[in-house]
Structure formats: C-alpha cells, structure tokens
Amino acid sequence: MQSIPMHADFSQTARPAHDPLVEIEGLKVRFFTDDGVVEALEDVSLTVPRGKTLCIVGESGSGKSITGRALLNQVPSPGKVVGGSIRYFREPDAAPVEITTLDPRGRDMRAIRGGEIGLISQEPMAALSPVHTIGNQMREAIQLHLKLGRKAADAHAVEMLAKVGIPRPAERLDRYSFEFSGGMRQRICIALALACSPRLLIADEPTTALDVTTQANIIDLLLDLQSELGVSVMFITHDLGVVAEIADEIAVMYLGRIVEQGDSVSIFKDPKHPYTRALLRSIPTFASTRGGRLETIRGMVPSPFARPTGCTFNPRCEEAIAGVCNRVVPWPVNVGPGRTVRCHLHADRAEIDRALESQS
C-alpha cells in the first residue's frame, strides 16, 4: 500500500457532475452454493462518469471485483444477478443498453465485452495465454472487434504496444508472455484492453502483484492514456494511496454494499462513514514507516455465511450505536452534493425509531 502522495491537493473545490457512461442501480448478486446462499452484492448503486475515473475501494471480500464482473456480464458460476440494473450509455442522448438482459455468450454482449468495455486483471500471467504469442492474442481481439485484416491488425498491435512503452514492439509480437517481466506483461495487458478503443476500462487491482516502482510507472501510464484517449476507468483497489492519485469519484464498499460515495476531494477531506475513516487511518505515513505504529481496523471481514445483522460493519465499528446499528440495516443518506453514506450516525433519529418499531 502506498502513502498519499505529497503533491495530492484536497483543498480544491469538488468537481462537477458529468454525464454517466454506466449507471448501476440496486444491483444484487447471489452465489448459490452447497453450503448456502452468499449475498455477494446487495443494493449496489453507483455511476461511472464519462471520461473520468471511479475508484471502488475496500478490503478483500467486499464485492469490488464482483461488481466489475457483473458489468461485464461475467459473474462466475454459481453466481447470478438476481436484481437491479446495469445501464450502459453508448452515447449521452441515446437509449441505454441494459447489460443484465443480454445473453452473456450472445453476439451483442461479446461485442461490448472487449470491444467497448476492456478489462485489466490483477494477474497478467493468468490473463495472457502462455501457448500463444502476444501478436496472436492481440490480433484475434483486434480482428474480432475492429474488423481489420491481418496486416492492419498487426500494425495496430505494434502501435498499441509502443503506446504503452514496450520497446521494439514489432519484434515482441512473436514473443510469449513468459518472456516478459511482470511490469511488461501488465503493460501488454493494458495495450490489449485498449486496442479496440473501449469507452470503459475496468482495472481490477492492476498493480497489486507489482513492486512499488513498477506500480508507480503503471499508474502514470494509465493516467497518461486516459488523458490522451478520454476513456472512462473503473479502478478496483484496496490501496487508498493509489486512489488519492487517480480518482475523480470514489465508492467505498464493505461486505457487498456501498457504504459511502462521492467525489474524491470531499471523501478524503471529510470522510463520513466510520469504515472510510478507518481505511484512511490505516494508510502508512512517514511516522509509521519510521518506527511509529501503523493503525489497523480491528477484527476481520466476516464470512459471507455469517453476515452480522443490522449494519454489517457494526462489530468492528468504534462508533456503533448500541441497540441500533446491530438491529437496523442503514439506508443511503445524502450528506452533500453527489455524496451519500449508509450510516445511522447521519440518519434522522425519527426514521431510525420507526425502523426499530417496525421490528417489534
């Protein structure tokens, strides 16, 4: 985990809202296992702004990656989207495409996946085939989505490899993934994800498996490419140091729910949810790296088979309200322009009392 960069400026005013590229509303995902039903996502609502970066942040097991997979219509078996909608707006004024109604293996979804929505995964060795050359893998995607001939597809592949900083790109087309370093493989994955000019790039923990220097290089590369190409980015991470550097909007997830969301300036400057504040306190600082004590969030993320009642964060929360947080599921509360938080500390007490009465 990186520390917040010293040049990050959170004193600026909040950014204005932008046209949505994707709107997720009330999304519910369940995994139907032999041991029971897992509520992977519960009532998830968020917006990916057009041409901007939305960071989804939270600990492992919070549902970040499943959100990205649902957007790609690739929830792994035995998972299933059981409620909500995912609206994809190709053009600002056009009717949206409802992702959840498309056949995951159908022509329409295959045209969107890879062609209009690209994915950079956490582990490039798993994303790249070890038995096919880099050129073959890029050529297949480019010919499928851009309908180019072999010669034109190869030229485009070379162009994309050069754009992400691969030296002597024409020579590298005939190489295999295991012939490259981890950082170079991740650059190839980025080139592959961007080769068909997608409107949205889903980056699922793309720097976790890399050393700190390579992480910084990959982040700088993504920022440069986004500025150049105008692509929207959904960046999935547990690292708030990275979030501080790249995010326009932030959604904080915990155990399948969005607990806080808003623009990055407001969330870093004035976090509202106890979980968000705990995550921020756990970022390494100069004091902690020079012998000071690193703060941690007490306890562990519960098993999805043993979800706490009420607010799922309440067993770990230092500000939990006895008799309330362990009984009543919090609802989204508006706490500012474009900002919501699921926490009883910000809810109307009369509404909480009515919720408690309804349980009696």
Largest sheet: 8 strands, mixed
Coarse structural class: alpha/beta
Summed over residues and divided by their number, the pLDDT gives a mean of: 89
Regions with little confidence, pLDDT below 50 for 5+ residues: 1-17
Identify the overall geometry. Answer: globular
Oligomer class: single chain
Order of helices and strands: EEEHEEHEHHHHHEHEHEEHHHEEH
- Give the fraction of residues assigned to helices: 25-40%
Q: For the record, give the distance between the C-alpha atoms at the N and C termini, rounded to a whole number.
A: 45 Å
Strand order of the largest sheet: 6-7-8-3-9-10-12-11
Q: Compute the gyration radius: what is it? A: 21 Å
Q: How many extended strands? A: 12
Number of helices: 13
Q: Report the β-strand fraction as a percent range.
A: 15-25%
Your description of this structure?
With 360 residues, this protein is of the alpha/beta class. It is built from 13 helices and twelve strands. The strands form two sheets. It has an eight-stranded mixed sheet with strand order 6-7-8-3-9-10-12-11, with helices on both faces. Strands 2-1-4-5 form a four-stranded antiparallel sheet, with helices on one face. A hairpin with an 8-residue loop joins strand 4 (79-88) and strand 5 (97-98). It is globular. The relative contact order is 0.15. The model is unreliable at 1-17 (pLDDT under 50).
Main features:
360 residues; alpha/beta; eight-stranded mixed sheet; four-stranded antiparallel sheet; 13 helices; globular; disordered N terminus
